[in-house]
Amino acid sequence: MRITKGRFGPGLAVLAIWSSLAGTAAATEGYFALGYGPSQRAIGGAGVAYGFEAMSAAVNPAGVAGIGHELQFGLEIFAPTRSYTGTGTGFVPSGKVESGNDIFPIPNFAYNLPLANGAVFNLAAYGNGGLNTDYPTGLGGCGSVYCGGEAGVDLAQLFIAATYAQKTGAISWGISPTLAVQRFKAKGLSNYAGISTNGAKLTDNGYDMSYGFGLRLGAEVEVSPTLTFGVSGQTKMYMSKFEKYAGLFEDGGDFDIPASISAGVAWKATPTLTVVADYQRIYYSGVGAVGNATNAGALGAKGGAGFGWDDVNVYKIGAEWKQSEMMTWRAGYAHATNPIGPEDVTLNILAPGVVEDHVTAGGSMRLNGRDTLDFSVVYALPNSTSGPETTPGGPTGGTIKLEMHQLSASIGWTRRF
């Protein structure tokens, strides 16, 4: 039985995660997740300098160097509320319009295995839910957003990372070659065909897949018994093109995953209280399909129009208090800058990732000597961005306000061997 689990357990976990991620939506730091497991989310997504579980590899590969033999599963139930309000609009219906599809399961998995040489091998599977919107017909004006029938997008991203990490003295380091898989579809954009290089590959072509590869590196330094610094970076993940949407995304369907960097500190204030703080920057501007301005040129052209997203800065702080051997409590706060400017609101009805402030809480309860139940709740406060309505032919004089808030609850199980 042990051999069977070793051979097939991680693979089945990855397949289950991909099945659940298809059709999810997450827009917390643009479309990067706040955290990749219940415990990470509970401390505001921080942890670059505080590796304490197998899922820490998703934040900093070095963080698992001191973690023993451990298996983790988690599930987040994510509930975003996305809407826009049109005032005096002519291209999109006026009034407040909400997107459907607002409950999504997002799982995670990690397995940490110590090696004979003192290093560890870690396998983790997790996702950026991406962006999901689904606007109905039967609205005012022409009857639908963009006057092309039901409108929306669905982007899901799965990451499978194999990490090698080692600790030597006060320094830990790790490297994570990462496979990425994306799934995407768009609908209701037929009225943009006039500014697309390929109207047949612009919209309503069902799902398309994209595959690619990137690298995450990280280090932790124990400055003292109570103070640790950490740094981590992810390269741009170079992805195959979405061929079915060559007329939507820049350069014939190119949609890479942005690079990011993070730095953080962990301070053990008392034997039972640890405080963590992180800074993260996500380089959306490095991916044309996302970062190019919405008026940069034809959709699908090299250097052409994107969604106009700016780079995002994220500031995170969290605390962990060990009340007893059986109970640990966590809380946190994160602030992410809004990537969407007023000039780009019309197209970003499809992707209204405008939330900024997140409040988090949770904890872990030991069930026995080997098993722990982890849990967290995250609330992203309402935020909005307003700007002029623009059509493929130019501005109309109307205004559009994008709005979003989010609520999620996570639960997980940790087994230590």
UniProtKB/TrEMBL annotation:
<dbReference type="GO" id="GO:0009279">
    <property type="term" value="C:cell outer membrane"/>
</dbReference>
<keyword id="KW-0998">Cell outer membrane</keyword>
<keyword id="KW-0472">Membrane</keyword>
<keyword id="KW-0732">Signal</keyword>
<dbReference type="Pfam" id="PF03349">
    <property type="entry name" value="Toluene_X"/>
</dbReference>
<keyword id="KW-0812">Transmembrane</keyword>
<protein>
    <submittedName>
        <fullName>Hydrocarbon degradation protein</fullName>
    </submittedName>
</protein>
<keyword id="KW-1134">Transmembrane beta strand</keyword>
<comment type="similarity">
    <text>Belongs to the OmpP1/FadL family.</text>
</comment>
<dbReference type="GO" id="GO:0015483">
    <property type="term" value="F:long-chain fatty acid transporting porin activity"/>
</dbReference>
<dbReference type="InterPro" id="IPR005017">
    <property type="entry name" value="OMPP1/FadL/TodX"/>
</dbReference>
